[in-house]
Specification:
The chain is α+β, with helices and mostly antiparallel strands. Among the domains are: about 150 residues, no CATH class; about 100 residues, Mannose-6-phosphate receptor binding domain (Cation-dependent Mannose-6-phosphate Receptor, Chain A, Distorted Sandwich), CATH 2.70.130.10. It has eleven helices and twelve strands. The protein is elongated, with a radius of gyration of 45 Å.
Length: about 525
């Protein structure tokens, strides 16, 4: 039965839309999509006449329209007309007007709901107001931050020009001193090398003897093991002896030089092409290599002596052990020669003219200091240029939070975030979740951090930081919606609005003016509608 007349608005129509259902002297009413005209009495007659469902705002006949719940004492709302008189008290209609036929009794709880909603709005408004005041301070700071950075940059750039000029002058002096030194060294090379050779002759000869001694010892140990390999009694099946032979065979495979004589010869054969210092150090290096070989061979025999089966009395084994025992005192007595605890002190090369060297060392030191000062200043300039190019949000609001760090702990990890820097996941060690990349969108409420440590069989870790209004800066939640893609929820005054009492009043007016859902809103509400229908 229709509930509308030419003089009264039909059920389910918002006051702001009453004019759409006023007769204005006409006998018929036109569907809101303009497709059809029907008598006023056909509005809300529980029969769908209009394709857009606009003739049935207060019944479920069309099911495609929207019903207005006045919700006095709370906020008005819309629900789909398909949900009218379906036996379910819809929470959007706290006044119970969606079940007007009385199939079920829906109490009017708008006063209670309205009170709770107002308390929540007041709580949020208080946070927004306090946060907005703090944000205003951030804006004030941001306004001067980049000016300050630019002033610092201008100062450093002016200083850099002077430092660079001074560094170039010092480099020119160093280049000149270096050229003089190289010319001097070229002219005096033969006589200086002869003097140096004579100076190093005693310790070079001493090092040759060390190498020869070490070579003899190595040859003796190797010969003992080779004889053991050939003559040990295989019928005894002594596993320790077999392990010794195997270790010796592996050693032979690793050897690049077959005999110490060849190695010594290599050093000697190239002496004509080397300086006295190069010859001495080559002998030292070769002696060190031979000592390592001695240690390996001695250890093979030492282990065999300790662990072999003494009941077998294998002559080859006993002979090899005796050779090792004979060598053991030498190994101890000449320990310094073999393990290098006592190094031969190499005299300093003083055959370059002292004045020549002092001038070169002085200009070299000055050049090094000037270059370091230039590099340091250049690094500071680049750092300032990077900070100046950074997007700190509208009114530079986030400038005060640059490099400020925050942490959030869950049951397993500690998550940290240094704004505009890096996000980390910490446990026994730190894992990078990414470094600041950019803002997402134009609202300055979401940051993206990328390039974190690569996941096992996955992508590089990354973080989205979603910001909301809060009185203090804090991470309030961390999750991992997708593999290696993290979500930080971050509260900050920087995300608050700077609001006035007028703004609060306008916001309330908007809440009280229920808006007819758009197509996008309808699509978003599909899931909620499904759940309702299931009830």
């Amino acid at each position: 039965m229709a509930d509308a007349s030419v003089n009264s608005p039909p059920r389910g129509v918002a006051p702001s839309r009453n004019h759409l259902y006023t007769s204005k002297g006409a006998e018929n009413w036109k569907c809101l999509d303009g497709s059809k005209s029907i008598p006023y009495a056909a509005i809300n007659d529980d029969y769908c006449d209009c394709a857009d469902g606009s003739d049935e705002p207060g019944t479920s006949a069309c099911g495609t329209g929207y019903f207005y719940c006045a919700n006095a004492g709370h906020l008005p709302a819309y629900i789909k007309t398909s949900r009218l008189n379906d036996g379910v008290c819809d929470p959007e209609c706290c006044d119970g007007s969606d079940e007007f036929r009385g199939t079920v009794q829906c109490p009017n709880i708008c006063e209670q709901v309205g009170k709770e909603a107002k308390e929540e709005r007041d709580r949020v408004r208080k946070i927004e107001k306090e946060g907005g005041k703090i944000r205003q301070g951030y804006i004030t700071y941001g306004a001067g931050a980049k000016k300050k950075l630019q002033k610092q940059l201008n100062s450093l750039q002016a200083k850099f020009s002077a430092v660079q000029q001074k560094a170039n002058e010092i480099k020119a002096a160093f280049d000149e001193a270096n050229a003089k030194r190289e010319e001097y060294l070229r002219r005096t090379k033969i006589e200086r090398e002869a003097a140096r050779k004579a100076q190093l002759a005693p310790i070079t000869e001493q090092q040759r003897k060390r190498l020869a001694h070490a070579t003899d010892v190595k040859s003796g140990l190797r010969a003992a093991l080779e004889e053991l390999k050939e003559k040990y009694n295989k019928n005894y099946h002594d596993l320790v002896v077999k392990d010794t032979i195997t270790g010796f065979e592996e050693y032979l495979k690793e050897m690049e030089q077959e005999t110490s004589d060849i190695a010594t010869g290599e050093v000697q054969n190239t002496e004509g092409e080397r300086t006295a210092d190069e010859i001495f150090h080559a002998l030292q290096d070769r002696t060190r290599d031979v000592r390592k070989d001695i240690g390996k061979l001695f250890q093979l025999l030492k282990v065999m002596k300790r662990d072999h089966n003494v009941e077998y009395n294998d002559e080859a084994v006993l002979k090899a052990i005796k050779h090792m025992d004979d060598f053991a005192p030498t190994w101890q007595d000449d320990h310094n020669d073999f393990v290098g605890e006592e190094l031969i002190e190499v005299p300093k090369d003083n055959f370059e003219a002292s004045e020549q060297r002092e001038e070169w060392e002085r200009t070299q030191e000055a050049h090094g200091k000037a270059s370091e000062a230039e590099r340091k200043l250049q690094s500071e300039i680049q750092d300032l240029e990077q900070k100046l190019s950074m997007d700190y949000g509208k009114d530079e609001t986030f400038a005060q939070l640059v490099e400020k760090c925050f942490e959030y702990k869950d049951m397993e990890y500690t998550y940290s975030l240094c704004l505009f820097g890096e996000a980390l996941q910490k446990s026994h060690s730190s894992t990078s979740l990414g470094k600041f990349s950019k803002w997402i969108g134009d609202n300055y409420d979401t940051q993206l951090y990328t390039g974190g440590t690569k996941c096992w069989n996955g992508p590089e870790r990354s973080v989205k930081v979603v910001m909301s209004c809060g009185v203090v800066n804090e991470i309030v939640a961390v999750s991992e919606p997708s593999k290696c893609e993290y979500l930080y929820k971050f509260r900050t005054p920087a995300a608050c609005r700077v609001i006035s009492d007028k703004d609060v009043a306008e916001d309330m007016d908007m809440l009280l003016e229920a808006v007819m859902p758009s197509e996008a809103t309808v699509a978003m509400g599909t899931e909620a509608t499904k759940k309702h229908d299931e009830l």
